[in-house]
Amino acid sequence: MTSPTIGRLRVDGATLHYEVRGRGPLLLLIPGGAGGAASFDGVADDLAAEYTVVSYDPRGLSRSPLDDPEAQQRVAQHADDAYRLLELLSPGAPARVVGSSSGAIVALDLLATHPERIERVVAHEPPVVEVLPDAAEHRAMLARVQDTFRREGLMPAVAVFAAGLRRPGDDPVDAHAATELPPQATARAERTMADMPYFIGRIVPSFMAYAPDLDRLKALSDRLVLGGGADSRGELPYRPAAFLTERFGTELIHFPGGHTGLSTHPAQFGEVLRKVLST
């Protein structure tokens, strides 16, 4: 794996850690969950053959500390962070943007607020559950997650959250289950777990309450590719992408694996990504 060039960018209320690989048109990768820039390690080098690939740790995660550790998090502010990176690294030239999960929510807001800076957005399973007809059920689930987090702690809350994302009838996931990981992946997993309280406590409730401007996104839908996991049909994070493509009259692109296909099937995921970025 190629060592990236590391940069730091001061933004309002935080300092962002970002990584740059390759040469060519700018491709900004916005991670989801608590994974940070490392979420894209499996695809970044291949993409760097065609693009200047920029990945980063969103504010509050890993190597991007907040000035105020208790600051409330808002999608609009995270989207402004992404915009500041575009302004720094691709001034004046429209860029391509890929977002996964909560990062895909940021990518949608970035497209809606700064379309002049965007050539194409690929949003993989943005969990914008407020667009769904049964949004009230998911609001109640998210409230249970926060209540469990306050009363019982992190892992019970993660278990409630994971249960709320599954298809009805799927087997429960053991939030404590351990798997054998290579050293680099182990270090990444440890960093992710260290960031999990911030993700569950601050990102999940704010981001999953976000309601995108559907009329605005429909008007920009020729620049928007919505993706879902081939193995996650019917799961909660998949459903908004399917709903939006139907609403916009566009095609839902299926990526290998499920919601975390970027990590479980990186080579195949990267292949599909290259195709949709270039068409």
From TrEMBL:
Keywords: Hydrolase. Residues 25-141 form the AB hydrolase-1 domain. One of its GO terms (molecular function) is hydrolase activity. It comes from the Bacteria. Gene3D superfamilies: alpha/beta hydrolase. It holds the Pfam family Abhydrolase_1. InterPro entries: AB_hydrolase (IPR050471), AB_hydrolase_1 (IPR000073), AB_hydrolase_fold (IPR029058). SUPFAM superfamilies: alpha/beta-Hydrolases. This is Alpha/beta fold hydrolase. It comes from Nonomuraea mangrovi.
